[in-house]
Amino acid sequence: MITARPISARPRTLRAARLALAAGTAVLGVTLTACSGGAAASDREAGKDGKDGSSRAADTRISVNLRGSAAAAGKPVTVTLAAGKLRKVTVSAGKGEALTGRIAAGGRTWTSDRPAAPGTAYRVEAQDTGGSSDTASFTTAAADKVNKLTLAPGKNTTVGIAQPLSIVFDNPVKDRAAVEKALKVSTSNHTEGSWGWLRDYSGRDRVDWRPKEYWKSGTRITLDAALNGIDSGPSGGWFVRDYSTTFTVGSSQVVKVDLDRHRLALKRDGRTVMDVPMSAGTPGGDKASWRGTAVLMAKEGTINMRSETVGLGHTYDKMVDWSMRLTWSGMYAHAAPWNAAYFGVANHSSGCVGMSDADAASLYRQAHVGDPFEITGADAKGTVAEGNGYGAWNVSWADWRTRSALA
Fold first, then answer.
1. For residues 384 and 392, what is the distance between their CA atoms, to the nearest angstrom?
2. What are φ and ψ of residue 363, in 5° steps?
3. pTM metric for this prediction
């Protein structure tokens, strides 16, 4: 309970004083007088301390650590009561959600769970256990630079068992630990997984969350990226919004590509549903295919493929049907009727996995974005890099976990 401070010999009714500013903080002041004649019991127990011989208790006040029209963002909001106990504190934003928080043991201090975001107006409402309340307000300084991101997979999509959560940032992320702490992944079956930082094929910073093993069919995954108010570090800028996505894992499918046997097989729930001849990249140079696990990134249909876009000069310029992207560097699985003489016989393409029109169309219809293409064989130019599409599966689980900024 807040004690009384008599200011005259005549009893007065309960009243709340207006908010005052003192010592560089916003101060919420509440002055109360006893509801009955004379001093309150706590005043009497404290003894006489007034110049006129009357009993006197300290003023009650609440201070807010942020104030003014250009308060520093990125810090939690702290509300402190000088005497007594807090009952409730609300910090609402002019734009965006209110900041939740907790009252510390003893009841004197409330601290927000999240930092104040840049360029945001906040209103503080605090109430003590005696029922007195008041308000304060402040606005944080606008961000001098803003960082944004691209998030995959998209919201409410159904994906294959190898699809990672993947975040590519517009600007560099120097404070990776602060960013990673704000990224919460939840799954319907408590799947074990880890974030790993890498360099995207575009050259930008990227962080992926992959499970230890392929997802189980039917798993539902949710990402809550509570980034609003997080500073990504020098030259990176502030995040000024939160992000989220939810997706579901579809049927368990794996595409097996055997470069040595020149065959492609689609397995669903361990059962082979397709096994067709194909021709992959010509071995011995830049036209060879990649080995390792690639992940189907997108089903792009009919597209124009030009060799100069992948550094192979002007050797081809074709409209290609049933195109399924496997890497950023330009490796696809697609229809290649012009290469029919080599299907099942030899690898004789410019790096892609080519099939007949009918076989490519059948695979296209059945494949899911996120399905793994497990590519084996000697006729390869190397292993798919983790940033060249979704190549994290080519990194051991032990090594992948060390790439977390919180490891």
1. 9
2. -65, -40
3. 0.81
